[in-house]
TrEMBL record:
InterPro entries: MFS_dom, MFS_sugar_transport-like, MFS_Sugar_Transporters, MFS_trans_sf, Sugar/inositol_transpt, Sugar_transporter_CS. It holds the Pfam family Sugar_tr. NCBIfam families: SP (TIGR00879). It is a multi-pass membrane protein. Residues 1-429 form the Major facilitator superfamily (MFS) profile domain. This is General substrate transporter. The lineage of its organism: Eukaryota, Fungi, Dikarya, Basidiomycota, Agaricomycotina. It comes from Coprinellus micaceus. The keyword Transport applies. The chain crosses the membrane at residues 16-37, 44-63, 69-91, 103-124, 136-155, 238-259, 274-296, 308-327, 339-364, 376-399, 405-423.
Amino acid sequence: MEDFVKRWPITPLQKGIMTAVLELGALVGALFAGYFADKYSRRYSIIFACIIFSIGSTFQALAQNLFHLFLGRAIGGIGVGALSMLSPLYMAEISPPEVRGSLLALEQLSIVLGVVFGFWTGFITRSIPGPMSWRIPLGVQIIPGIILGLGCLILPPSPRWLVLKGRDADALKSLARLRMRTQEESESDSLLQIELLEMKVETELIQKTFAMDGDKSGFKTELRAWGRLFSKEYRDRTLVGVLIMFFQQWSGINALLYYGPTLVQSIGLEGDTVSLLVSGGIGIVQFFAVIPAIVYIDKIGRKPLMRLGSSVMSASHMSIALLVLLFQDDWASHRYAAWIAVGGIYTFTAAYGVSFGPIGWVLPSEVFPLSMRSKGVALSTASNWANNFLIGLLTPVIISKSPSATFVTFSAACFLAYLWATYSVPETANVSLEEMDEVFNSAAGKEDSHIKAQIEEDLGLKALIEDLANDR
Ligand SMILES: O[C@H]1[C@H](O)[C@@H](O)[C@H](O)[C@@H](O)[C@H]1O
Protein backbone atom coordinates (compact mmCIF):
# COMPACT_ATOMS: atom_id res chain seq x y z
CA MET A 1 0.00 0.00 0.00
CA GLU A 2 3.07 2.24 0.20
CA ASP A 3 2.49 3.30 -3.39
CA PHE A 4 -1.03 4.48 -2.54
CA VAL A 5 0.08 6.51 0.46
CA LYS A 6 2.95 8.10 -1.47
CA ARG A 7 0.87 8.83 -4.54
CA TRP A 8 -2.05 10.32 -2.65
CA PRO A 9 -1.07 11.47 0.81
CA ILE A 10 -4.61 12.09 2.01
CA THR A 11 -5.64 14.00 5.11
CA PRO A 12 -7.73 12.31 7.84
CA LEU A 13 -10.72 14.33 6.61
CA GLN A 14 -10.28 13.04 3.05
CA LYS A 15 -9.96 9.53 4.46
CA GLY A 16 -13.22 10.01 6.32
CA ILE A 17 -14.97 11.32 3.22
CA MET A 18 -13.60 8.44 1.14
CA THR A 19 -15.15 5.96 3.61
CA ALA A 20 -18.38 7.92 3.87
CA VAL A 21 -19.13 8.37 0.14
CA LEU A 22 -19.63 4.63 -0.25
CA GLU A 23 -22.08 4.47 2.64
CA LEU A 24 -23.97 7.53 1.45
CA GLY A 25 -24.12 6.10 -2.08
CA ALA A 26 -25.41 2.87 -0.57
CA LEU A 27 -28.07 4.75 1.35
CA VAL A 28 -29.32 6.28 -1.91
CA GLY A 29 -29.11 2.90 -3.71
CA ALA A 30 -31.08 1.14 -0.97
CA LEU A 31 -33.83 3.76 -0.95
CA PHE A 32 -34.37 3.85 -4.71
CA ALA A 33 -33.94 0.19 -5.60
CA GLY A 34 -37.38 -0.70 -4.21
CA TYR A 35 -39.07 1.43 -6.85
CA PHE A 36 -37.26 -0.39 -9.65
CA ALA A 37 -37.86 -3.76 -7.98
CA ASP A 38 -41.62 -3.17 -8.03
CA LYS A 39 -41.67 -1.68 -11.50
CA TYR A 40 -39.17 -3.74 -13.51
CA SER A 41 -38.88 -6.94 -11.46
CA ARG A 42 -36.60 -8.06 -8.67
CA ARG A 43 -34.15 -9.90 -10.96
CA TYR A 44 -33.66 -7.19 -13.58
CA SER A 45 -33.07 -4.67 -10.83
CA ILE A 46 -30.36 -6.93 -9.38
CA ILE A 47 -28.71 -7.18 -12.80
CA PHE A 48 -28.88 -3.41 -13.24
CA ALA A 49 -27.38 -2.87 -9.77
CA CYS A 50 -24.53 -5.26 -10.66
CA ILE A 51 -23.77 -3.16 -13.74
CA ILE A 52 -23.66 0.04 -11.65
CA PHE A 53 -21.47 -1.70 -9.09
CA SER A 54 -19.05 -2.91 -11.78
CA ILE A 55 -18.78 0.59 -13.28
CA GLY A 56 -17.93 1.95 -9.82
CA SER A 57 -15.34 -0.77 -9.23
CA THR A 58 -13.72 -0.11 -12.62
CA PHE A 59 -13.36 3.58 -11.77
CA GLN A 60 -11.67 2.61 -8.50
CA ALA A 61 -9.29 0.02 -9.96
CA LEU A 62 -8.20 2.25 -12.86
CA ALA A 63 -8.17 5.51 -10.87
CA GLN A 64 -5.72 8.12 -12.16
CA ASN A 65 -6.50 10.67 -9.51
CA LEU A 66 -8.27 10.96 -6.18
CA PHE A 67 -11.47 12.20 -7.78
CA HIS A 68 -11.76 8.92 -9.74
CA LEU A 69 -11.53 7.04 -6.46
CA PHE A 70 -14.19 9.13 -4.75
CA LEU A 71 -16.46 8.86 -7.77
CA GLY A 72 -15.86 5.12 -8.04
CA ARG A 73 -16.72 4.57 -4.40
CA ALA A 74 -19.87 6.68 -4.64
CA ILE A 75 -21.10 4.86 -7.79
CA GLY A 76 -20.06 1.46 -6.43
CA GLY A 77 -21.84 2.37 -3.20
CA ILE A 78 -25.11 2.92 -5.06
CA GLY A 79 -24.79 -0.60 -6.48
CA VAL A 80 -23.90 -2.10 -3.10
CA GLY A 81 -26.83 -0.37 -1.39
CA ALA A 82 -29.28 -1.46 -4.07
CA LEU A 83 -28.04 -5.05 -3.93
CA SER A 84 -28.20 -5.10 -0.15
CA MET A 85 -31.95 -4.54 -0.30
CA LEU A 86 -32.73 -6.43 -3.52
CA SER A 87 -31.06 -9.71 -2.60
CA PRO A 88 -32.90 -10.37 0.70
CA LEU A 89 -36.13 -9.13 -0.88
CA TYR A 90 -35.86 -11.64 -3.71
CA MET A 91 -34.64 -14.44 -1.47
CA ALA A 92 -37.51 -14.01 1.00
CA GLU A 93 -39.99 -14.14 -1.87
CA ILE A 94 -38.76 -17.38 -3.38
CA SER A 95 -38.11 -19.33 -0.16
CA PRO A 96 -40.52 -21.80 1.43
CA PRO A 97 -41.37 -20.66 4.99
CA GLU A 98 -39.75 -23.63 6.79
CA VAL A 99 -36.27 -22.75 5.56
CA ARG A 100 -36.67 -19.04 4.83
CA GLY A 101 -34.54 -17.96 7.82
CA SER A 102 -31.68 -20.27 6.84
CA LEU A 103 -31.74 -19.13 3.24
CA LEU A 104 -31.83 -15.47 4.21
CA ALA A 105 -28.99 -16.02 6.67
CA LEU A 106 -26.93 -17.07 3.63
CA GLU A 107 -26.88 -13.39 2.78
CA GLN A 108 -24.84 -12.79 5.92
CA LEU A 109 -22.60 -15.72 5.03
CA SER A 110 -21.87 -14.09 1.69
CA ILE A 111 -21.32 -10.68 3.26
CA VAL A 112 -18.78 -11.99 5.74
CA LEU A 113 -17.14 -14.13 3.11
CA GLY A 114 -16.71 -10.86 1.19
CA VAL A 115 -15.30 -9.18 4.30
CA VAL A 116 -12.80 -12.02 4.76
CA PHE A 117 -11.75 -12.08 1.09
CA GLY A 118 -11.55 -8.29 0.97
CA PHE A 119 -9.41 -8.05 4.07
CA TRP A 120 -7.01 -10.83 3.17
CA THR A 121 -6.66 -9.77 -0.46
CA GLY A 122 -5.57 -6.35 0.76
CA PHE A 123 -3.32 -7.92 3.36
CA ILE A 124 -1.56 -10.14 0.84
CA THR A 125 -1.22 -7.59 -1.97
CA ARG A 126 -0.11 -4.72 0.26
CA SER A 127 3.54 -5.63 -0.09
CA ILE A 128 3.55 -5.90 -3.92
CA PRO A 129 5.68 -3.02 -5.20
CA GLY A 130 3.91 -0.34 -7.24
CA PRO A 131 0.24 0.46 -7.85
CA MET A 132 -0.82 -3.18 -8.20
CA SER A 133 -0.77 -3.36 -4.38
CA TRP A 134 -4.05 -1.43 -4.36
CA ARG A 135 -5.33 -1.82 -7.94
CA ILE A 136 -5.66 -5.60 -7.51
CA PRO A 137 -7.84 -5.53 -4.37
CA LEU A 138 -9.99 -2.77 -5.87
CA GLY A 139 -10.29 -4.68 -9.14
CA VAL A 140 -11.18 -8.15 -7.87
CA GLN A 141 -14.52 -6.92 -6.55
CA ILE A 142 -15.78 -6.89 -10.13
CA ILE A 143 -15.64 -10.71 -10.26
CA PRO A 144 -18.48 -11.41 -7.78
CA GLY A 145 -20.45 -8.54 -9.36
CA ILE A 146 -20.29 -10.21 -12.76
CA ILE A 147 -21.07 -13.68 -11.37
CA LEU A 148 -24.16 -12.34 -9.58
CA GLY A 149 -25.40 -10.40 -12.61
CA LEU A 150 -24.99 -13.33 -15.00
CA GLY A 151 -26.28 -15.84 -12.45
CA CYS A 152 -29.50 -13.88 -12.10
CA LEU A 153 -30.30 -14.52 -15.75
CA ILE A 154 -30.88 -18.20 -15.03
CA LEU A 155 -32.83 -17.77 -11.79
CA PRO A 156 -36.64 -17.94 -11.87
CA PRO A 157 -38.54 -14.67 -11.38
CA SER A 158 -40.16 -14.00 -7.99
CA PRO A 159 -43.65 -15.56 -8.10
CA ARG A 160 -44.85 -12.95 -5.62
CA TRP A 161 -43.77 -10.11 -7.88
CA LEU A 162 -45.54 -11.80 -10.81
CA VAL A 163 -48.73 -12.02 -8.75
CA LEU A 164 -48.33 -8.34 -7.88
CA LYS A 165 -48.26 -7.67 -11.64
CA GLY A 166 -51.34 -9.83 -12.25
CA ARG A 167 -49.34 -12.48 -14.16
CA ASP A 168 -50.79 -15.46 -12.33
CA ALA A 169 -49.97 -18.11 -14.95
CA ASP A 170 -46.30 -17.06 -15.00
CA ALA A 171 -46.30 -17.02 -11.20
CA LEU A 172 -47.47 -20.63 -11.11
CA LYS A 173 -44.76 -21.61 -13.61
CA SER A 174 -42.08 -19.95 -11.55
CA LEU A 175 -43.40 -21.44 -8.31
CA ALA A 176 -43.40 -24.90 -9.91
CA ARG A 177 -39.76 -24.44 -10.88
CA LEU A 178 -38.83 -23.25 -7.41
CA ARG A 179 -40.60 -26.14 -5.70
CA MET A 180 -39.21 -28.60 -8.26
CA ARG A 181 -42.51 -29.65 -9.82
CA THR A 182 -43.23 -30.21 -13.52
CA GLN A 183 -45.82 -28.04 -15.27
CA GLU A 184 -48.37 -30.90 -15.22
CA GLU A 185 -47.79 -31.56 -11.54
CA SER A 186 -48.22 -27.88 -10.75
CA GLU A 187 -51.74 -27.86 -12.24
CA SER A 188 -52.90 -30.59 -9.88
CA ASP A 189 -50.68 -30.04 -6.84
CA SER A 190 -53.01 -28.58 -4.20
CA LEU A 191 -50.18 -27.32 -1.98
CA LEU A 192 -48.76 -25.31 -4.84
CA GLN A 193 -52.20 -23.98 -5.72
CA ILE A 194 -52.76 -22.96 -2.10
CA GLU A 195 -49.41 -21.18 -1.97
CA LEU A 196 -50.30 -19.26 -5.12
CA LEU A 197 -53.80 -18.44 -3.91
CA GLU A 198 -52.43 -17.15 -0.61
CA MET A 199 -50.22 -14.75 -2.51
CA LYS A 200 -53.22 -13.62 -4.53
CA VAL A 201 -55.37 -13.13 -1.45
CA GLU A 202 -52.70 -10.97 0.12
CA THR A 203 -52.29 -8.86 -3.02
CA GLU A 204 -56.04 -8.39 -3.42
CA LEU A 205 -56.41 -7.45 0.22
CA ILE A 206 -53.79 -4.77 -0.03
CA GLN A 207 -55.11 -3.52 -3.35
CA LYS A 208 -58.59 -3.26 -1.88
CA THR A 209 -57.23 -1.30 1.06
CA PHE A 210 -55.18 0.94 -1.25
CA ALA A 211 -58.10 1.51 -3.58
CA MET A 212 -59.75 3.41 -0.75
CA ASP A 213 -56.91 5.90 -1.02
CA GLY A 214 -58.00 7.03 -4.50
CA ASP A 215 -55.69 7.50 -7.49
CA LYS A 216 -53.28 4.71 -8.28
CA SER A 217 -50.18 6.11 -9.87
CA GLY A 218 -47.92 9.10 -9.76
CA PHE A 219 -45.59 10.77 -7.35
CA LYS A 220 -48.25 11.50 -4.75
CA THR A 221 -49.28 7.87 -4.53
CA GLU A 222 -45.66 6.83 -4.23
CA LEU A 223 -45.22 9.28 -1.38
CA ARG A 224 -48.41 8.10 0.23
CA ALA A 225 -47.20 4.50 0.01
CA TRP A 226 -44.01 5.47 1.84
CA GLY A 227 -46.10 7.29 4.40
CA ARG A 228 -48.15 4.15 4.91
CA LEU A 229 -45.07 2.51 6.45
CA PHE A 230 -45.70 4.79 9.42
CA SER A 231 -49.44 4.24 9.63
CA LYS A 232 -51.01 2.33 12.49
CA GLU A 233 -51.14 -0.96 10.54
CA TYR A 234 -47.48 -1.06 9.57
CA ARG A 235 -45.74 1.00 12.24
CA ASP A 236 -44.75 -2.03 14.32
CA ARG A 237 -43.18 -3.81 11.36
CA THR A 238 -41.41 -0.68 10.18
CA LEU A 239 -39.97 -0.29 13.66
CA VAL A 240 -38.79 -3.91 13.67
CA GLY A 241 -37.02 -3.41 10.32
CA VAL A 242 -35.44 -0.07 11.19
CA LEU A 243 -34.46 -1.02 14.75
CA ILE A 244 -32.89 -4.40 13.96
CA MET A 245 -30.50 -2.55 11.65
CA PHE A 246 -30.00 0.23 14.19
CA PHE A 247 -29.00 -2.29 16.85
CA GLN A 248 -26.94 -4.32 14.39
CA GLN A 249 -24.79 -1.30 13.65
CA TRP A 250 -24.69 0.15 17.18
CA SER A 251 -23.55 -3.22 18.49
CA GLY A 252 -20.17 -1.93 17.32
CA ILE A 253 -19.32 -4.58 14.72
CA ASN A 254 -18.21 -2.06 12.12
CA ALA A 255 -16.36 0.01 14.68
CA LEU A 256 -14.22 -3.11 15.17
CA LEU A 257 -13.93 -3.78 11.45
CA TYR A 258 -13.10 -0.20 10.43
CA TYR A 259 -11.06 0.82 13.45
CA GLY A 260 -9.94 -2.58 14.72
CA PRO A 261 -6.25 -1.73 14.44
CA THR A 262 -6.72 1.53 16.38
CA LEU A 263 -8.86 -0.16 19.01
CA VAL A 264 -6.41 -3.00 19.43
CA GLN A 265 -3.64 -0.48 19.89
CA SER A 266 -5.78 1.13 22.57
CA ILE A 267 -5.70 -2.17 24.44
CA GLY A 268 -1.96 -2.24 24.37
CA LEU A 269 -1.06 -4.40 21.38
CA GLU A 270 1.50 -3.01 18.99
CA GLY A 271 2.80 -3.54 15.51
CA ASP A 272 1.01 -3.45 12.19
CA THR A 273 0.87 -7.17 11.72
CA VAL A 274 -0.62 -7.95 15.12
CA SER A 275 -3.37 -5.40 14.75
CA LEU A 276 -4.10 -6.44 11.17
CA LEU A 277 -4.26 -10.05 12.25
CA VAL A 278 -6.63 -9.25 15.08
CA SER A 279 -9.03 -7.23 12.95
CA GLY A 280 -8.69 -9.72 10.08
CA GLY A 281 -9.60 -12.44 12.55
CA ILE A 282 -12.89 -10.67 13.29
CA GLY A 283 -14.10 -11.46 9.77
CA ILE A 284 -13.15 -15.11 10.15
CA VAL A 285 -14.96 -15.43 13.50
CA GLN A 286 -18.06 -13.87 11.93
CA PHE A 287 -17.85 -16.39 9.13
CA PHE A 288 -17.78 -19.40 11.46
CA ALA A 289 -20.46 -17.94 13.74
CA VAL A 290 -23.00 -17.59 10.97
CA ILE A 291 -22.96 -21.34 10.29
CA PRO A 292 -24.85 -22.35 13.49
CA ALA A 293 -27.25 -19.47 12.78
CA ILE A 294 -28.04 -20.95 9.36
CA VAL A 295 -28.70 -24.33 10.96
CA TYR A 296 -30.76 -23.18 13.95
CA ILE A 297 -32.52 -19.98 12.93
CA ASP A 298 -35.67 -21.77 11.78
CA LYS A 299 -35.50 -24.52 14.39
CA ILE A 300 -35.10 -22.46 17.56
CA GLY A 301 -36.34 -19.16 16.16
CA ARG A 302 -35.03 -15.63 15.81
CA LYS A 303 -35.82 -14.36 19.30
CA PRO A 304 -33.75 -16.82 21.38
CA LEU A 305 -30.74 -16.19 19.12
CA MET A 306 -31.13 -12.43 19.45
CA ARG A 307 -31.54 -12.56 23.24
CA LEU A 308 -28.58 -14.85 23.76
CA GLY A 309 -26.47 -12.89 21.28
CA SER A 310 -27.16 -9.44 22.70
CA SER A 311 -26.55 -10.48 26.31
CA VAL A 312 -23.16 -12.02 25.47
CA MET A 313 -22.31 -9.02 23.27
CA SER A 314 -23.14 -6.55 26.02
CA ALA A 315 -21.15 -8.50 28.64
CA SER A 316 -18.12 -8.79 26.32
CA HIS A 317 -18.03 -5.05 25.63
CA MET A 318 -18.40 -4.31 29.32
CA SER A 319 -15.51 -6.59 30.30
CA ILE A 320 -13.26 -4.97 27.68
CA ALA A 321 -14.26 -1.53 28.99
CA LEU A 322 -13.31 -2.60 32.52
CA LEU A 323 -9.96 -4.01 31.44
CA VAL A 324 -9.18 -0.82 29.53
CA LEU A 325 -10.14 1.28 32.52
CA LEU A 326 -7.97 -0.77 34.87
CA PHE A 327 -4.87 -1.26 32.77
CA GLN A 328 -4.72 1.43 30.11
CA ASP A 329 -1.87 3.24 31.83
CA ASP A 330 0.30 0.18 32.10
CA TRP A 331 -0.46 -2.43 29.48
CA ALA A 332 3.21 -3.40 29.29
CA SER A 333 3.14 -5.18 32.65
CA HIS A 334 -0.34 -6.62 32.03
CA ARG A 335 0.00 -8.34 28.66
CA TYR A 336 -2.37 -11.10 29.75
CA ALA A 337 -5.10 -8.46 30.35
CA ALA A 338 -4.65 -7.18 26.79
CA TRP A 339 -5.05 -10.70 25.43
CA ILE A 340 -8.15 -11.28 27.56
CA ALA A 341 -9.54 -8.10 26.00
CA VAL A 342 -8.81 -9.52 22.53
CA GLY A 343 -10.68 -12.65 23.65
CA GLY A 344 -13.56 -10.33 24.59
CA ILE A 345 -13.55 -8.88 21.07
CA TYR A 346 -13.75 -12.37 19.58
CA THR A 347 -16.49 -13.47 22.02
CA PHE A 348 -18.47 -10.38 21.06
CA THR A 349 -17.96 -11.11 17.37
CA ALA A 350 -19.05 -14.74 17.71
CA ALA A 351 -22.21 -13.71 19.59
CA TYR A 352 -22.95 -11.01 17.02
CA GLY A 353 -22.22 -13.37 14.15
CA VAL A 354 -24.82 -15.86 15.29
CA SER A 355 -27.50 -13.29 16.09
CA PHE A 356 -27.80 -9.67 14.97
CA GLY A 357 -25.47 -10.21 12.00
CA PRO A 358 -27.68 -12.65 10.10
CA ILE A 359 -31.00 -11.71 11.69
CA GLY A 360 -30.52 -8.11 10.60
CA TRP A 361 -30.93 -9.39 7.06
CA VAL A 362 -33.68 -11.88 7.87
CA LEU A 363 -36.31 -9.87 9.74
CA PRO A 364 -36.87 -6.88 7.44
CA SER A 365 -37.60 -8.98 4.38
CA GLU A 366 -40.08 -11.23 6.10
CA VAL A 367 -42.22 -8.90 8.18
CA PHE A 368 -43.80 -6.75 5.45
CA PRO A 369 -46.79 -7.71 3.30
CA LEU A 370 -46.18 -8.02 -0.45
CA SER A 371 -47.12 -4.56 -1.62
CA MET A 372 -45.27 -2.85 1.24
CA ARG A 373 -42.30 -5.22 1.16
CA SER A 374 -39.98 -3.41 -1.22
CA LYS A 375 -40.46 -0.10 0.60
CA GLY A 376 -40.19 -1.70 4.03
CA VAL A 377 -36.98 -3.54 3.12
CA ALA A 378 -35.63 -0.39 1.47
CA LEU A 379 -36.19 1.67 4.60
CA SER A 380 -34.68 -0.99 6.87
CA THR A 381 -31.63 -1.34 4.63
CA ALA A 382 -31.33 2.45 4.54
CA SER A 383 -31.29 2.34 8.34
CA ASN A 384 -28.37 -0.10 8.11
CA TRP A 385 -26.37 2.27 5.88
CA ALA A 386 -27.29 5.44 7.76
CA ASN A 387 -26.24 3.95 11.09
CA ASN A 388 -23.19 2.38 9.49
CA PHE A 389 -22.25 5.88 8.28
CA LEU A 390 -22.74 7.35 11.77
CA ILE A 391 -20.58 4.65 13.32
CA GLY A 392 -17.81 5.36 10.81
CA LEU A 393 -18.04 9.04 11.60
CA LEU A 394 -18.38 8.96 15.38
CA THR A 395 -16.22 6.02 16.46
CA PRO A 396 -12.85 7.73 15.91
CA VAL A 397 -14.12 10.73 17.86
CA ILE A 398 -15.24 8.61 20.83
CA ILE A 399 -12.05 6.50 20.74
CA SER A 400 -9.90 9.62 20.84
CA LYS A 401 -11.82 10.90 23.88
CA SER A 402 -11.92 7.59 25.75
CA PRO A 403 -11.46 4.02 24.51
CA SER A 404 -13.29 2.63 27.54
CA ALA A 405 -16.28 4.91 26.88
CA THR A 406 -16.38 3.50 23.34
CA PHE A 407 -16.92 -0.01 24.68
CA VAL A 408 -19.39 1.19 27.34
CA THR A 409 -21.46 2.87 24.60
CA PHE A 410 -21.63 -0.33 22.56
CA SER A 411 -22.34 -2.39 25.68
CA ALA A 412 -25.30 -0.13 26.50
CA ALA A 413 -26.60 -0.42 22.93
CA CYS A 414 -26.40 -4.23 23.13
CA PHE A 415 -28.25 -4.20 26.44
CA LEU A 416 -31.03 -2.11 24.89
CA ALA A 417 -31.07 -4.57 21.99
CA TYR A 418 -31.63 -7.37 24.52
CA LEU A 419 -34.62 -5.57 26.05
CA TRP A 420 -36.03 -4.81 22.62
CA ALA A 421 -35.62 -8.41 21.40
CA THR A 422 -37.24 -9.70 24.57
CA TYR A 423 -40.22 -7.38 24.84
CA SER A 424 -40.92 -5.94 21.40
CA VAL A 425 -40.09 -8.40 18.64
CA PRO A 426 -42.55 -11.15 17.71
CA GLU A 427 -41.25 -14.58 16.69
CA THR A 428 -41.43 -14.97 12.92
CA ALA A 429 -39.83 -18.41 12.45
CA ASN A 430 -41.98 -20.82 10.43
CA VAL A 431 -44.65 -18.23 9.74
CA SER A 432 -45.53 -17.91 6.06
CA LEU A 433 -45.17 -14.42 4.60
CA GLU A 434 -48.94 -14.37 4.18
CA GLU A 435 -49.59 -15.27 7.83
CA MET A 436 -47.40 -12.46 9.12
CA ASP A 437 -50.45 -10.22 9.62
CA GLU A 438 -51.59 -12.37 12.48
CA VAL A 439 -48.20 -12.28 14.13
CA PHE A 440 -48.30 -8.50 14.09
CA ASN A 441 -51.94 -8.41 15.00
CA SER A 442 -52.45 -5.68 12.45
CA ALA A 443 -54.43 -6.31 9.29
CA ALA A 444 -56.14 -8.84 11.50
CA GLY A 445 -58.13 -5.76 12.45
CA LYS A 446 -61.77 -6.75 12.26
CA GLU A 447 -62.65 -5.00 9.02
CA ASP A 448 -59.62 -6.42 7.19
CA SER A 449 -60.21 -9.98 8.29
CA HIS A 450 -63.73 -9.64 7.02
CA ILE A 451 -62.54 -8.47 3.59
CA LYS A 452 -59.88 -11.19 3.65
CA ALA A 453 -62.41 -13.93 4.33
CA GLN A 454 -64.50 -12.62 1.44
CA ILE A 455 -61.52 -12.61 -0.94
CA GLU A 456 -60.51 -16.11 0.17
CA GLU A 457 -63.96 -17.27 -0.69
CA ASP A 458 -64.07 -15.42 -4.02
CA LEU A 459 -60.71 -16.80 -5.11
CA GLY A 460 -61.60 -20.32 -4.05
CA LEU A 461 -58.92 -20.69 -1.38
CA LYS A 462 -61.43 -21.76 1.23
CA ALA A 463 -62.93 -24.42 -1.03
CA LEU A 464 -59.50 -25.73 -1.95
CA ILE A 465 -58.44 -26.08 1.68
CA GLU A 466 -61.73 -27.77 2.55
CA ASP A 467 -61.29 -30.20 -0.36
CA LEU A 468 -57.82 -31.00 0.78
CA ALA A 469 -58.98 -31.59 4.35
CA ASN A 470 -61.78 -33.90 3.15
CA ASP A 471 -59.38 -35.93 1.00
CA ARG A 472 -57.18 -36.70 4.01
O1 LIG B 1 -24.34 -7.98 8.57
C1 LIG B 1 -23.25 -7.27 8.10
C2 LIG B 1 -21.95 -7.86 8.55
O2 LIG B 1 -21.97 -8.22 9.87
C3 LIG B 1 -20.76 -7.02 8.21
O3 LIG B 1 -19.60 -7.49 8.78
C4 LIG B 1 -20.94 -5.57 8.52
O4 LIG B 1 -19.87 -4.86 7.97
C5 LIG B 1 -22.24 -5.03 7.96
O5 LIG B 1 -22.41 -3.68 8.25
C6 LIG B 1 -23.41 -5.81 8.46
O6 LIG B 1 -24.61 -5.30 7.96
